Amino acid sequence: MTAPVKSSGTNFSGVSELRPVTVPDFLNARSRQQRLTMLTAYDCTMARILDAAGVDSLLVGDSLGMVVQGQPDSLAVTLDEMIYHTRLVMRGVRRALVVADLPFMSYQISPQQALESAGRLIKEGGAHAVKLEGGVRSAAAVEAITQADIALMGHIGLTPQSVRRLGGFKVQRDAQKVLDDALAIEAAGAFALVIECVPADLAARVTEAVKIPTIGIGAGPHCDGQVLVTPDILGLFEDFRPRFVKQYADVGRAIQSAVEHYCREVREGSFPGPEQSFR
Ligand code: KIV
What we know:
The protein is of the alpha/beta class. The chain folds into two domains: 23-248, Phosphoenolpyruvate-binding domains (TIM Barrel); 250-279, no CATH class. 37% of the residues lie in helices and 13% in strands. The chain is built from eleven helices and eight strands. The chain has helices at residues 23-28, 44-52, 64-67, 79-92, 111-123, 139-147, 163-166, 175-187, 200-209, 230-233, 251-268, and strands at residues 36-40, 57-60, 97-101, 129-131, 152-157, 192-196, 214-217, 225-228. The longest helix is centred in the last third of the chain and has 18 residues, at 251-268. The radius of gyration is 20 Å and the shape is globular. It binds 3-methyl-2-oxobutanoic acid. Residues 40, 59, 61-63, 101, 155, 194, 217, 227, 229 line the site of 3-methyl-2-oxobutanoic acid (KIV). 3-methyl-2-oxobutanoic acid (KIV) is lined by residues 40, 59, 61-63, 101, 155, 194, 217, 227, 229.
């Protein structure tokens, strides 16, 4: 049995309390008027910091193809790589709900393949839940996974694995398609829905149309929660910055300046000093 949830806090259990965030917490967030916070993580060190800061959920996103591996998109990321990064993240987490992405071609072939891939993310990666992209076209895969009692988050609107068909990372404005996709994924058993890069009023309509919580990224303020790619908000990824990103820190510059300092001290002979040396 879980401890009672505080009603006055900014998150489910208060940052100092360590009751893990659960799927039912997500489902109850709207009725409790609690906005959900989600960020991506790819390794243990960053997961530990984000978890300690009180983020409700960590997404081991296949965006790691771009922000960790330096590729132009996420298409080459493999299921084994996702399992590896999920394992690293799980070691750093005590409270946040960890959701792992099913990468491109790990669920499109058949519902059976989708279930097997999701099962590996749970059993080998240790993820609490999985996420996959697509609405109506992915509903059978979602159903196969959720029928096995694996918690699943949907992802509609701009689906980055479709970037080549879409011709780029573009705002999705086909309201009927986005609504149909949302309803299909909810009916197939998802517990939450990422909506990426759609006009704010359309995201508001979707949020009104479904009972499960919506998590927006580039989808305006009316969703039940927000997710962003952590290296974007920390200034660690500068290849391109979508308009919906807000940069909260310039960690990249801080790292560069620290490393320049280190190199200077080694070159001039002031590091290591007596405090860093053994007698
Ligand atoms: O892979 C990822 O980081 C994502 C977010 C953009 C939601 O799917």
